[in-house]
Fold:
Amino acid sequence: MLFEGENFAFLAPQMSASNDGHDVKENRRRKRRNSHLLLLITGVLVFAAVASGLYYALRPVTLRIAVGPLGSDDQKLIQTMAETFDRERNAVRLSPVLTESATQSLALLGASNADLAVARGDLELPRDAEAVVLVRKNVVVLWSPADTRGPASKKQPRPKIKTIEELQGHRVGVIGKTSANVALLRLILTESGVAPDRVAVTQFGTDQIQELARDMSLNAFMTVGPLDSKITADAIAATARERGEPKFLPIDVSEALALKHPLYESEEVPGSVFNAKPAWPDDKVETISVSHLILARKSLSEETVATLTRQVLAARQALARDAPGAAHIKKPDTDKDAPLPVHRGAAAYVDGTERSFLDRYGDYFWFAILLVSGLGSAGAWLRQFLKRDEREEITELRNRIMAMISNVQSAQSVEELLTMQRQVDAIIRETLDCHDDGAIDEEDLAAFGLVLELFDHAVGDRRAALEGSTPEPTRLRAR
Structure:
C-alpha cells in the first residue's frame, strides 16, 4: 500500500502539470484565433478604404446643365449630348434642367442650382460664370424687303432701305423674344449714328414667321443665329414671297463696334449662304457675331471640366448626326485678353496642360503606400504585442529548466532524474508549439537549446555519480 501511495504521490504532480499544459495550449489557441480575427478585420478595413478611394476617384460625375426653351436648338443639342454620354458610359454625364429661356438658365447657374448653362455671351452673366466650349457663333442678319410701303400708303411705295442709317423713322421686326436681340439692335443703331428711340421695334417668336412676313408695318427685319439657321432662312424666304426680293443691310461699323464691345466680333455673311438661285445675298455682307456658349461655375472641379471639354469636342461628329448644330462646336478662346474668362479646366485641355491621372492622384498613391507600410509595421507590433504573454511564458519555462539544473545536483535517485526529464520533455513540446505559432523566433529557440544542453549534461553527470560510474565526455565539455 505504501508503494501504491508513493506512486500516486509521484503521479499527482504529473497530472497537475498535464492539466496546466492543456490550459496553456487552449489559452494560446484562443489568443491566436483572436489575433487572426483582428488581423482579418484590419485587412478588410484597409481594403474597404482603398476600394472606396478608387470608387470616389473613378466614379461618373453627373452635372446639371440648364438649357431652354423646350424645342430650341440648344435643348435638342444638350439632350442629344446627355444621351450620347450615357450610352458611351463617359466619366462625365449631363442631366438637363429645362428652363423657359437662357436668362433663366443663367439665373439657375448663378444661384448654384445648376453646374452648367447654355447662353449667349452678351447676356448678363453670373459673376463666377466661365466658358467651357463654344457652341456656335450667332451672326446678325438685317434685311429690308423690296416693298416697303407702310399701312397708311399702300399705293405709294417708299424708297427702298439700303443702309442702317435709313432705318430712322421706320419699324424693324426682330425674331426672338429675348431682350438681348433688341439691346443688340439698339447698340448697332447707336454705333451707326441712328437714335434708337427713332426706330420702332416689334418682336416675334420663332413660330411667328408668317405673321412677321405679312406685317406691312415693318420696313426691315433682323435675326440673330448661326449662318445655317433654318429660322433665318425661313424668315428671309417668307418675307421674299410676301414683300419681294430682300436687300441685306451691312453693318459698316462692325469693326469699331467690336473694339468698343469685345463680346462681339466683326464677321462677314458669305454670298449665297441663304439661297442659291437667286443668290441671297448676292455678295458678302459685313456684320457682327456673338458667341453662344456652355458656361460653368468657376468653383466646378478643374478635372471635371477638362474631362467634359474633351468629351464634347471628341463627340462633335457623333452628335452632328442627331443634332446638326453640333457641327459648330469649337474650342473656347483661351487667350488672357479673351472677353469671356475660360474655365481653368477647359483651358488646361485646350492648351495641353491637363494633368494626367498620376498627376492628379499621385499624392494619394504615395499616401496609400505610406499608409500600407505603416499598417504593416503596426501589424507586426500588434502581433508581438498580442504574443507578449506567450513570450513571457517561454522565458518562465526556460527559467524553470535553469532551476532544475540546480536541483539535479541534489537528486537522490535515478527516478527523480527521470521525473525531471519528463517535465523538461513537456516544456520542450510546449516550446516547439510556441515556435510553430510564431511566439518565439530563432534566437530565442537557440538560447533555449543552450539551456537544454546544460540540463542534459547536468543529468548525465548526476546519473553517473548515482550509479558510481565515470560520465562520458560531452560536447559541451569538449568545447
User: Anything to note?
Assistant: The CA atoms of residues 414 and 463 lie 6 Å apart. Residues 2-58 form the longest helix (57 residues).
